[in-house]
Fold each of these.
Amino acid sequence: MSGAGNFLAKASSRLPLLSRPGLRRLFAGTAVLAGLIVLPAAAQSAVKIAEPGATASRPHVYLMRGLLNIFSLGMDQLAVQIQRNGIDAGVYNHTLESAIVEQIAAKYRASDHGPYILVGHSLGADAVMMMAQQLNAKDVPVALVVPFDGTGSYVAPRNVACVLNLTQRRYAYMRAGAGFHGMLSNVDVSNDTTIDHFTIDKSPRLQAEALRYVLQAAHSESCRPGAAGPVVARPKEAPAPKQAAPAKSASPTLRSGYEG
C-alpha cells in the first residue's frame, strides 16, 4: 500500500462513525489533495518550467579578430561599447568563422531570429564577408556586416541587409552580389594620415560610426533583412560621428578571443 493509503487507513480508524458513502467521498477528496501536494518522481521529472525568453529572438553581434589574435584589439573595445548598450557581443579569432556560422544557424533554427550582426578587422573583416556568404547558403538572414580594412574585395550576398565597409585601401571595396537588395557603403579613409591598417579598428570616430550602425540594426531601426530597394553608396570619407552615449554601467567581462 502506498504511503498516502497507509495514512488514510490510519486516519479512518480515528474518525467518528460515518456512512460508507461519506467515507468514500472524504477519502476521494483527501487523495486528490495528496496527489496535488506530492508528485511522484516520474511526474516531477516531466514537469518543465519554460525559461522566459528561452527561444525569443534577440540581437547578437560577433566580432572577429585578425592575424595572431593580437592586432585587432579594437574589436574588444567595440564589443565593450556594444555590451554597455545591453546587446550580446562576443569576440573571436577569424579562424573560427565556420564554427560561428554553425552556431548562428543553430540559433536561427531554434527560432532565435536575431538580428545577427558581423564585425571584423583585417583577416577578421575577410572572415565576416565569407561568413555572410556561408549563412546565405543556409538561408539565414544577416542584418549588418561591418568589415574594418579587409585584405580584399568581396561580394555582399542577398541575405545581407547592410554592409558598412571601412577601409584605408582603395582596392578593398565591397560590391553587390546577385540578389543583393540592401545598403552597401564603402567608406574610404585613406586620406586620413592618422589611420593605417593597424589603427583603423581603434579609431574612436570609426568605432563610433560602427557602433551607431550596430545599435540601429540591433533595434531594427535600420538594416532589416528583406527590405526592398538596393542602395549602394559611393566611396566617401567617413563623417565625424555623434558623441556616443556615456556608459550606463561598468564594462562587462568579455569572452576572450581564441588563439589562431
Note: The longest strand covers residues 160-167.
Amino acid sequence: MLLYNEVIKIMRKIDLKNIIWKEGKHYVSWNLNTGVSSFGASRKEALAMLHEALELYFEDTLITKVQKVERPDIVPMTFEYA
C-alpha cells in the first residue's frame, strides 16, 4: 500500500533519431526529433552530452510535441552563393 506522499515514477520510452559528426577537434551530436544538439571531445562524450541536454529539454516539453522522424536520409546539395 502506498502512502499519500509516495510518488511513483512511470518510465516511458521514446525512440529518437540522432546524427553525429566530427567538426574540428570536437564531435557534434544533433537530435532530429527536437533540434537539440551538443558536443564533446569524442563520439561517446558528444552522445552523453546530448542525452543530458535532452533530459533538460524534456523537463519543460511534452513528449507529444516531439516530431516523429521515420527514415532520415542525408542528401548532399551543392549551394552557390555570392
Note: The chain is about 20% helix and 20% strand.
Amino acid sequence: MQILIEAAKTLEDKAVIERIRREVFEREAGIPLSRLTISADAEALHLLARAEVTGDPAATLSVIDTSKDHELHQRYGLRFSSNSRVARYTQLAVLKSYRGLKIPLMLMLEAHRQFVIPRRFDYTWLLFDAERAGVTFMSKRLGFTVTEEIFEADCGQSRALVRDERAVSSKRAIEQAEEYLDQFLRRLSTAQATVTGASRGIHAAIS
C-alpha cells in the first residue's frame, strides 16, 4: 500500500485531521482531545497521510514553532536558550487499519524535511508515554533523548523527548532512519506484489 503525505491546505483537510484525532484519541483511547495552541507569531505544519490509490485518510501529525513559548518549555523541564529555534511534534494519530506500515516514521521524517530543516530549528521535542519513551522509534531510530522527569499530560504520565538538530548524531540518525524506511517499503512492496500475483493465479485457476 502506497501512502501519500501532504500538508493540510484546505478547511476540508483540517476537518479530516480533526476527525482522525477524535477517532484515535477520544473514541479509541478515551483521551480528551486538546485544542492545539499556536501563538499568532508562530508557524505550524499539519500533515495528512492518505492511501495513495483510494485517497482515504490514514494518519496525521502537527509540528509547531514553540521558540517563544518559554512557559511551555519550563512546564516540561525543557531548558533552551532564549534565542533558540524550537519546534514541537504533537498529536500524532494513526487510524487502526493503517497501523504497522511505519506511517508515524514517515510523518516524522516528512515534517523534518518540510518544516524543521528549511526553518533551521535548533531543537525539536515531543511528549511521550513515560513507560515507553525509551523504546519508541523516536528514541531508537530518530535520535531523540529521553528526559528523566515525569509529567502529567493529557495522555497520562509522560516524558519529554528532545533532539539537538545541530548535532552530527542527529543528522546521522535521520539518514539511517530514511534508509531503514526505504528498505521496509521495498520489502512491503515486494510482499504485496507476491500476494497479488498469487491471488490472480488462484482466480485464474478457479475460472
Note: The chain has a mean pLDDT of 91.
Amino acid sequence: MLDGGRRVRCTWGRIGNTPAAKEFRFDDRSEAKTFMNRKFNEKLRKGYTEQAVVADDKPTKLARLVVASADVRTEPAEKKHGRIYFWMVDGEGQIDVMQEFGKRYGEHETDAKIWRLLIPHVLRRLGKPSDLPVSWSQYAGCTCPCSPGFIVRGLNVDVHVHIPRTKTTH
C-alpha cells in the first residue's frame, strides 16, 4: 500500500520475467486494505504463490545474518505442510513475533512481508530448496488467529526460529 495507504500497487507475471504492474486508488485506507486482501486471497485460491521482491542486496544480507544468529528448531509437521514460526528471545523468555506485531499494529500482512525475507535463509539452513512455495496465514497453527506463521508446501517439519533480541541504547 502506498500514499498513506490509499493506493495499492499490484504486480504480477511469470517468475524470471519483468512483472506487469497496475495501481489502484481509493478514498480511504480501509477501502484499499479490503481490496488488497480480497485480491491477494483470490490469487492464492487460483494457485498463485507470493514472491518476495528485494530491490537491493542489503535486506538479503541482513536476513542472512539474522538467520545465522538464530536458534532454529524443528519438529515433525503437525499438518500436511510444514510451518515456520518466528520468535524473539531475550533474557526474560520468548515472544511470538507475529502475534506481538498484530497486537501493536493489527496488520499482520505487512509484517509478514518483512519476515518473508528470512524464509529462504531458514530453508537453506535446513538443507531444503529455498524456493519452496510459501504462504502467510494468520491461522497457520490452528483455527484461531493465535498462531500466525508461514505454511511451506513441500516442507515436512514445523520450524521455530528463535531470534536473539539485542538491547539497543540511545
Note: Confidence is low (pLDDT under 50) at residues 101-106.
